[in-house]
Design a protein that fits this description.
single chain; elongated; 4-stranded mixed sheet; 17 helices; 4 strands; mainly alpha; 370 residues
């Protein structure tokens, strides 16, 4: 009689894993058919994901091989991956479609499972400095940003490294290629867990810094669902004050701003020229007409899509330190560490150890890849 543990896949995890790859049920069925040499239908995948038929042992491994996850992670329950737990916030363009957003939400849920598994195995528990701040007509998003800077003892003036600041406060920051240019960041703060921010490696560094501040605003101000446009505006106002405090930036904006001056300010404050122009208008330094004129000028120069002056990309360090502890102090092999996250060694290395730049990430091959 075998002592080997029987594997039974969780239907919710099957769906979550497939969604994270951006595949349809037909895509997955085709890939499983290719690997198995048999004909597997979309209907079979549908019934498996609905829990109408059990997926056991060899079939779990087939799903895992097709989806490029470990079999063990497919046997976890979807709730432990964070699916449907807590509010999810994202800084995205309005044109982003539902399938892409579903893929990114699934990626966020799986990333939560992965980082929880890694930190628990490393026995590294940190307290975080995050708390909710209520905003209203009297206590504004700018007030909330000022409060957070004071509580976190952020020095006056520009913030040198937003990623380091958030990690020092207890957040988990992961940079991944989210395979879109229509979303810069997504975040989640479930009860009893540290905040998690997923940052798109395709976003320019200046946008990434603003997106991190934007997500911080969501995390501290928005503990309950609300009207989307209102919350997005509040998060933008929080981010502007957090990165460009009015008392510090106002004197630097008042001498007047043109394209040349904006380049200097961008290098100093680590935000985009467009964000600086908007900040100048919001602080009353320039009129709405002047704001529109400057934005038209940026467009004419091609700066709306590709601004000059490169801001240094900021790199998360905490999870890389977790991996180092697992491998160097607890003596896990790189493959064993990767399997804690339910991933193969190569993909795990690209996500959690590579430099956070677009060239440092590869798209996961689709089901048609050979």
């Amino acid at each position: 009689m075998s002592d080997q543990k029987s594997l039974v896949a969780d239907p919710g995890m099957l769906t979550l894993a497939r969604d994270s790859r951006g595949w349809t049920q037909s895509d997955l069925a085709d890939e499983m058919s290719r690997l198995d040499g048999s004909h597997i239908t979309q209907g079979y995948v549908s019934r498996a994901e609905a829990g109408r038929i059990p997926v056991r042992d060899g079939r779990v491994h087939l799903f895992a091989d097709a989806l490029r996850f470990t079999a063990d992670i497919l046997c976890r329950t979807a709730d432990t991956a964070g699916a449907g737990v807590g509010l999810v916030h994202h800084r995205k363009r309005a044109s982003m479609g539902a399938p892409a957003l579903r893929r990114i939400h699934a990626t966020l849920a799986l990333t939560r499972l992965q980082v929880d598994s890694l930190t628990q195995a490393a026995d590294l528990h940190r307290d975080d400095l995050f708390r909710r701040i209520e905003v209203n007509d009297f206590d504004t998003p700018a007030d909330a940003a000022e409060t957070m800077r004071e509580e976190w003892k952020v020095p006056a003036g520009p913030i040198d490294d937003m990623v380091a600041l958030l990690e020092d406060a207890g957040a988990l920051v992961v940079v991944r290629d989210l395979r879109t240019t229509e979303l810069d960041a997504v975040s989640q703060w479930p009860p009893g867990k540290p905040p998690l921010i997923l940052l798109n490696s395709r976003a320019p560094a200046d946008r990434s810094r603003f997106s991190l501040a934007h997500e911080l605003g969501h995390l501290v101000m928005h503990g309950e669902p609300g009207e989307g446009r209102v919350q997005e505006d509040q998060a933008n106002r929080f981010a502007a004050e957090f990165l460009m405090p009015h008392d510090a930036v106002l004197p630097e904006l008042k001498p007047g701003i043109d394209a040349s001056r904006l380049l200097d300010l961008k290098a100093r404050w680590g935000v985009s020229m467009a964000a600086l122009i908007r900040r100048a208008m919001d602080l009353g330094v320039i009129s709405e007409w002047h704001y529109r004129t400057l934005m038209v000028e940026l467009s004419a120069l091609g700066y709306r899509t590709n601004e000059p002056t490169t801001i240094q990309r900021e790199t998360p360090r905490h999870l890389a330190q977790v991996v180092t502890r697992l491998e160097e102090q607890l003596h896990l092999s790189p493959t064993e560490t990767a399997h804690l996250a339910g991933l193969g060694r190569e993909e795990f290395h690209e996500i959690y150890l590579c430099a956070s730049s677009p060239s440092g990430h590869k798209d996961v091959p689709g089901p048609s890849a050979r």
